[in-house]
TrEMBL record, chain A:
Lineage of source species: Bacteria, Pseudomonadati, Pseudomonadota, Alphaproteobacteria, Hyphomicrobiales
Domain ABC transporter: 19-248
PANTHER family, A to Z: ALIPHATIC SULFONATES IMPORT ATP-BINDING PROTEIN SSUB, TAURINE IMPORT ATP-BINDING PROTEIN-RELATED
Pfam families tied to this protein: ABC_tran
Gene3D superfamilies documented for this protein: P-loop containing nucleotide triphosphate hydrolases (3.40.50.300)
Entry protein name: ABC transporter
UniProt keyword list: ATP-binding, Nucleotide-binding, Transport
GO molecular function, one term: ATP binding
CDD domains per UniProt: ABC_NrtD_SsuB_transporters (cd03293)
InterPro entries (alphabetical): AAA+_ATPase, ABC_transporter-like_ATP-bd, ABC_transporter-like_CS, ABC_transporter_ATP-bind, P-loop_NTPase
Family matches, as SUPFAM superfamilies: P-loop containing nucleoside triphosphate hydrolases
Domain of life, source organism: Bacteria
UniProtKB/TrEMBL annotation, chain B:
Gene3D superfamilies in the record: MetI-like (1.10.3720.10)
Pfam families: BPD_transp_1
Bilayer topology annotation: Multi-pass membrane protein
Tagged with keyword Transmembrane: yes
GO cellular component: plasma membrane
GO BP terms, alphabetized: transmembrane transport
Keywords for this protein: Cell membrane, Membrane, Transmembrane, Transmembrane helix, Transport
Name of the protein: ABC transporter permease
Cellular location(s): Cell membrane
Family per similarity comment: Belongs to the binding-protein-dependent transport system permease family.
Biological classification of the source: Bacteria, Pseudomonadati, Pseudomonadota, Alphaproteobacteria, Hyphomicrobiales
Keyword field contains Amino-acid biosynthesis: no
Length: 267, 255
């Protein structure tokens, strides 16, 4: 308890973490999925979590979302314990096809978040149009998700998340199911959206290049049970660029380090 | 409509016309006594006579009324109860076996019970029709509510939606294809039970008309009633399909 209190104390010069894991352990069905995970995410930080499949990265994200409660330890948001999901934390799921309402149009899907936030119906259309434009879907308001490509559906899900006006955006392998070109385009769009909104991001991916390209910090998890294996600060200039950033010596150095880590965990 | 579809429609009408012609032929040749089997010409004449005298209108209205009230009551109760059972896994586990026991129970078996309790009244008919028609709707709703994509519930949680909003904005629309399919099945059940109740309880309607015509050996009137019941079943089912098509336009987009 003493250490927890100390960790959450405001230190001058260093902003208090927006999301703080403190000795978090999660046991599901008798299996320890995550063990003693401590982690702080600063406001406005872009944190990427990587690791082999089954290392608990999605679980960590669900803990941050409040969809799971830790077996022991604490997850705090803005200094308050997370007991349930909150509207200021938005989640972008990997399976956009399941996370969108198939019976609502693009506009209707964005509207769902606005309705939940209590926005009067007269104000919604303008906001919906603005949000759809932000994610690059102007003119698609009347389409059903099934009439849209995978990339467009994921943009739509991001638009709905932005409609929540989140302080934190949790992204669970959001581009895992998309082709390479769409993926790169969306990476850059997410970076500029996040830069514009100032939201904190936790981004789970198994694509190591993606993690370095996007993040301020990259955490690699070790499996069985999930725990932190490596932590890298990414000091690459922003705005990032698909060509020059990926050719940057620092990028290549981090990439090497991360690949070596993952290779070592696989043995 | 494209050419092939048009051709199919023409063919199906030709088949129907063929059956009517065959019926006329059998009646004309008196293969069956005219006392029991009128030709389509006599049945048609009886229909026209019944409608112009106003008798058939009131009978038809009576049957439609029984059917509609019973079906609507079954729909409202079936969706409500189905939603309560279907939205909770515990409820599904506990209640499902009882439902499975009650479901195959022939509704005709509860008619004597209903008559004993409610007498030969409209209330009895309403109860019996609703009781019979509720099963397809309720079971479809339970299934539909149980099959809602769990991811959508997580979306709802992260949006902190109220329980009521989750039901009306997520569970109900998600279950709507199942529910509407159940309602379509129930429509037929409601028509059958309307006729049965009219026959048993002597309530005003086509069932009663058919029964009286048969007893009086007015075979043309009997057939007129049967034809009208067939048309009623067909038209209500087509109307239901149209409503389904309109309400589930988003599913058409999916295909």
């Amino acid at each position: 308890m003493a250490s927890a209190a100390k960790r959450l104390e405001a230190v001058p010069g260093i902003p208090a973490p927006q999301i703080a894991f403190d000795g978090v352990t999660l046991v599901l069905g008798g299996k320890t999925i995550i063990e003693n995970l401590s982690l702080g995410v600063r406001p406005g930080e872009f944190l990427c979590i990587v690791g082999a499949s089954g290392c608990g990265k999605t679980t960590a994200l669900r803990l941050a979302a409040g969809l799971y409660q830790p077996t022991s330890g604490k997850v705090n948001f803005d200094g308050q314990p997370m007991r349930a999901p909150r509207r200021e934390i938005a989640i972008v799921f990997q399976d956009y096809g399941k996370a969108l309402l198939p019976w609502r149009t693009a506009a209707g899907n964005v509207s769902l978040a606005l309705e939940a936030g209590g926005m009067p119906s007269a104000e919604r259309p303008a906001r919906i149009e603005e949000l759809l434009r932000t994610v690059g879907l102007p003119g698609h308001a009347g389409k059903y998700p099934s009439e849209m490509s995978g990339g467009m559906q994921q943009r739509l899900q991001i638009a709905r998340c932005l409609a929540q006006e989140p302080k934190t955006l949790l992204m669970d392998e959001p581009f895992g199911a998309l082709d390479a070109m769409t993926r790169q385009g969306l990476q850059d769009e997410v970076l500029s959206l996040v830069a514009a909104s100032g939201a904190t991001v936790i981004f789970v991916t198994h694509d190591l290049d993606e993690a370095i390209y996007l993040g301020d910090r990259v955490i690699g998890l070790l499996p069985h049970p999930g725990r932190i294996g490596i932590e890298l600060s990414v000091n690459l200039p922003r705005p990032r660029d698909q060509l020059s950033t990926r050719e940057h010596p620092e990028f290549l150095r981090l990439r090497r380090q991360l690949f070596d880590f993952v290779k070592a965990t696989e043995q | 409509m494209n050419r092939a579809a048009l051709l199919w429609r023409v063919a199906s009408f030709a088949v129907a016309a063929g059956f009517i012609a065959l019926w006329q032929l059998i009646a004309n040749l008196k293969l069956v006594s005219p006392v029991f089997l009128p030709g389509p010409d006599r049945a048609w004449a009886s229909l026209v006579r019944g409608f112009s005298s106003g008798d058939l209108w009131s009978k038809l209205a009576g049957t439609l009324e029984h059917m509609a009230y019973g079906w609507l009551a079954a729909s409202i109760a079936g969706i409500a109860i189905g939603a309560i059972i279907g939205s909770s896994r515990t409820m599904r586990t506990y209640v499902a076996p009882s439902l499975e026991f009650l479901r195959p129970l022939p509704v005709s078996a509860i008619i004597p019970v209903a008559i004993a309790m409610l007498g030969l009244t409209q209330a009895m008919a309403l109860f019996v029709i609703a009781f019979g028609a509720i099963w397809p709707i309720m079971l479809a709703t339970v299934h539909g509510f149980g099959a809602v994509e769990p991811r959508l519930y997580e979306v709802a949680r992260s949006l902190q939606m109220s329980r009521l909003a989750v039901i009306f904005k997520i569970a109900l629309p998600s279950a709507s294809p199942d529910i509407l399919a159940g309602m379509r099945l129930s429509l037929t059940v409601a028509l059958i039970l309307s006729v049965v109740c009219e026959i048993l309880a002597g309530l005003d309607g086509l069932g009663h008309w058919v029964l009286l015509s048969a007893r009086a050996f007015r075979s043309a009137d009997l057939f007129a009633g049967v034809i009208l019941l067939g048309i009623t079943g067909y038209v209500t089912s087509v109307a239901m399909s149209l409503a389904e098509h309109k309400l589930l336009a988003w599913q058409a987009a999916q295909r």
